[in-house]
Design a protein that fits this description.
This is MOSC domain-containing protein. The protein has helices at 51-56, 72-78, 128-132, 136-139, and strands spanning 10-16, 25-27, 30-33, 37-38, 66-70, 93-96, 108-111, 115-122, 141-143, 149-151, 155-161, 163-165, 171-174. The chain has 186 residues and is mainly β. It has one domain (10-174): M1 Pyruvate Kinase, Domain 3, CATH 2.40.33. The relative contact order is 0.25.
């Protein structure tokens, strides 16, 4: 569930965007701020920063401080004819060697020496994905055999411990106490 046997879980790249745009620029490193998110990112803050959510309730807690996507998704998308690179889908952290989507809510990811992100839920893909590349929305959604929707566009989390992270940093997974709670869109 946590990491593949083929390689250790690690950070592929890190990204930040001070503006409310879709994609994020790759950076040499990013600093995670406890309870806030990524320093200098438009989504950093205690309360929600995503525009559609601010319009509904600007005082709701920011459960989407950090967005993580597994690099394996880009390989899957490439096999469907989509050229998508780390940061293109707006994630702050691109990972490899870990099945982010299979982790339960409350999982803590230690990134690098000190930073910890606690997973809050799944990213709910929106129309901006199709604006970025036509047909991409359908490619990041799937269905189980019984018809349940599978969202593959990454996971969201909050910063539980501050720290700087960069490409190549190791990721250590700490699962929450049983019973596990499946991640839902946040």
């Amino acid at each position: 569930m946590a990491a593949s046997c083929a390689r250790a879980a690690s950070v592929v790249a890190v990204h930040v965007n001070p503006q409310h745009g879709f994609s994020k620029d790759t950076a040499p490193s990013i600093k995670l701020l406890d309870g806030l998110g990524v320093e200098g990112d438009a989504h950093c803050g205690v309360t929600v920063k995503h525009r559609s959510r601010v319009a509904r309730d600007p005082f709701q807690p920011n459960l989407r401080q950090v967005h993580l996507i597994h690099a394996e998704l880009f390989d899957e998308l490439a096999s469907q004819g989509f050229d998508v690179l780390p940061g293109d889908l707006g994630e702050n952290i691109t990972t490899q060697g870990i099945d982010l989507l299979a982790l339960p809510a409350g999982t803590r990811l230690r990134l690098g020496k000190h930073a910890v992100v606690t997973l809050t839920g799944l990213r709910n893909p929106c129309v901006q994905i199709d604006r970025f590349k036509r047909g991409l929305m359908k490619a990041v959604l799937d269905h189980t055999p019984d018809g349940k929707l599978i969202r593959k566009a990454g996971v969201m989390g909050i910063v539980s411990a501050a720290g700087e992270i960069k490409a190549g940093d190791r990721i250590i997974v700490k699962l929450p106490k049983l019973p596990y709670r499946a991640m839902e869109p946040v």
